[in-house]
Every structure is written in C-alpha cells, then in structure tokens.
C-alpha cells in the first residue's frame, strides 16, 4: 500500500489544492480517470462558451438587417466549430497532465477509484491511503427512467459539445440551463429545436419573471412543450421518436438527434463513498459542514459533488477554503455570500441573491427596482427589446438582497451588483457612482434609481 500526505480525487478545482500542497513539499496523489481539468474544462463551461460564441455570431448576422446591414450566412462549417473547441480544451488538458506528471511531489493515478475504508482507496490493482483526503470528483449527466431511452443512441451534454455533424432537428429532454445553452447553440446555427419540459417554465430556478420572459422568447424561436413528460422513446430508421404527454393529450416528436439534458447526479456511487464512512444526502451529494468537512475524519469535499452550488466559480471558492482548512489548518467557514450565476443562452440570464419568490416566501419587507434596456441609450442602439434588470433591496438598511438580469451581456452587468453585495454596501453606492453614458451598465444604475423606498 502506498501512503500519501494528501489524496485529491478529481482533477478539476481539486487541482488548486493538490498543486499548492505539492509546492509546500507534501506527498500528493491525484486520482482522475478522465482528462485533467474536470468538467468545466473538458465537458462544460469552457468548450460550451467557445462553441456558443459561434452561435452568437450567427445570430448577429441574422439580425443585421435591424441595423441597416443586409447579410446572410452562406454556409456553416459545423465540424470546424466543435473541433476548434475540442482542440483548445484537449491541448489544455494535456498540458495540465504533463505538469502533474513532471511534479516530483505528485503522483497521478489515471484510473477510477473506489473507497474500501476510511481514507483508503482502491485504484486499479493498487491500494492507496492518505493522511488527508479531498473529494472533488464532480457529477455526471442524469439519465431519467423513460421507456425505451436506454435502447437508443441519445446524447448528453458530454457528447453534444463534440458532435462533428450538425443535426437537422434536435429534441431536447429538459428545460434547465444546459438545455437553454445548447438549444441556443444548435438553434442559432440552423437546427430545428424541440424542447420537452416537465414544468410550466424553462430555467425554472430563475426569478419567476425572468423565467417567464425567457420561456416566451424561446417559444418564438423553437417548439417548446412545457408541462409535458417524455413518456416513451424509440428509434425508427435514423430518426428518434419521442412520445410526449401531458394531462390532456400526447404528441409524437420526430428528430434526427436526441439530447438528454435532465440535470446532473453526483459521482458518489462510483466512488462508493459509504465505505469511506462518508455520509451522503437524499440526492446522493456528500454531506459537509460549514468547513466542508465530511463525516469521515480528515476528509473534505468540494465542488459539484458536495452539492452546495454547481458552478466552477463556487468550486474554486471552496477549494480556497479547503486548502486553508485542510492544509494550513486555518479553520474558516465558507462564505457563500453574493454567489452569482449566469446562463449563456440568447438572451443571456444572470442572477445573484434572492429571487422575488424567495422574498415572498419569507415575507421579507423589500423594495423593488426594475428597468428595461430599451429605455437606455445603449439598449436602443442594441435593439434589445426584451432585456431588463430587477433589483431587490431591504427597505431599512438599503442593502441589496438580489438582482436578476435578462438581456445582452447580463453575465457581465451582474458584477457591479456582486461587488456591492459582497462588500455589504448599500444600493446607494451604485446610485452615487458615475456611470459612463451611454454604456449598457446604466441599466443597472437606473434599476437602483427606480426603487420605491
């Protein structure tokens, strides 16, 4: 049996800790079956944003007549679009692996691992034990129990980013952020899109008004079936047939590609964490306390597998705290305040803090500000007819409770609010700051100015 000062399971944000620990001279093991860099680099945020930019360019061209420019797309090299993304991330993953292998204090086990006892893992034919163990092994696409689904060659987000041939028609099962981003990618490039969503809104975890408007916009572009369940899936020739049902009727949806985007599940079952005395919750995520300690001694968990927030930026934040808690022995509870998120679809969505439905559920006395993009100079220039900003603040303290944006560059605009919230400043700090005119960021300031205290 090999022993290590530290074992890190997962080569995403866990590498932030393994590399720092190795620099301090600790004997470190990294266990990762797949390519280095984790979900974000290889199957998530990085490749998806590279290919989505191509969709954004295509959409800009199609809308160019709004701005007095008559243009058209003569052809789309779909293979080039996805191959470009794959080459970039594969190169990065390879370079990360080379760096790990060259580090004299780090041993890479590129194989699947399973716990066999506390802080002890079976990795292939070897057994390794760590004085300390960090679980950062992420999640994988969830595949729902639908009749016939396992008998057909459906794809998940893992494969959707690497297809070489563009589908003519794609059916997407699910209506969350992954479905929204991939529908935009394929749809903007010309694929006809069907979306089958169990609930009454797409992106249902967003502020209700944001989700409602987003669903309305997507209905204008794509065939969106809300309040429908995929009851059965079959293959006829090269086509997929999905029987979608609601309380009143059923519909037969035919396409040449089927994407399952029904959420993600943690990899705790693959790791067999229970044998490591690590408890999981009802959804399979590792149970952790405020310090990200698990129920096993000297064992921490971070990132998606811990289930707090399923974002790369939250995993990076957690990695900083786990490094402090596990390696430097500076025990600090994780500060998740002002944790933002964004959906890189069209339109973009971004949010931080409480939603309107949260405020109502908790009976919080809040004041609301709202501002439409089209009432600003840059909003008019961009012809963003749907974009708006919503912001909530405490009536007494004037502190911002939440902000939600739908529209152009929402993922960038939200950062002004994040800084204010993280530093516990009042909404007045935005009102009192001079904003460049007519930059789009004025919509955030004007949303604050519209708050009726």
Write up this protein:
The strands form 5 sheets. Strands 1, 2, 3, 4, 5, 6 and 16 form a 7-stranded mixed β-sheet that branches. Strands 17-18-21-20-19 form a 5-stranded antiparallel β-sheet. It has a 4-stranded parallel β-sheet with strand order 10-9-8-14, with helices on one face. 32% of the residues lie in helices and 25% in strands. It is built from 14 helices and 21 strands. The protein starts with a strand and ends with a helix. The protein has 453 residues and is α/β, with parallel strands linked by helices. The mean pLDDT is 97. Helix 1 runs parallel beside helix 9 and helix 3 crosses helix 6.
Give a short synopsis of this structure.
With 453 residues, this protein is of the alpha/beta class. It has 14 helices and 21 strands.
Tell me about the largest β-sheet. Answer: 7 strands, mixed
Number of strands: 21
The pLDDT mean sits at 97
Radius of gyration based on Cα positions: 24 Å
Structural class: alpha/beta
Number of helices: 14
The oligomeric state is single chain
Tell me the helix content: 25-40%
Unreliable spans are none
Share of β-strand residues = 25-35%
Overall 3D shape: globular
How far the N terminus sits from the C terminus, by CA atoms, comes to: 66 Å
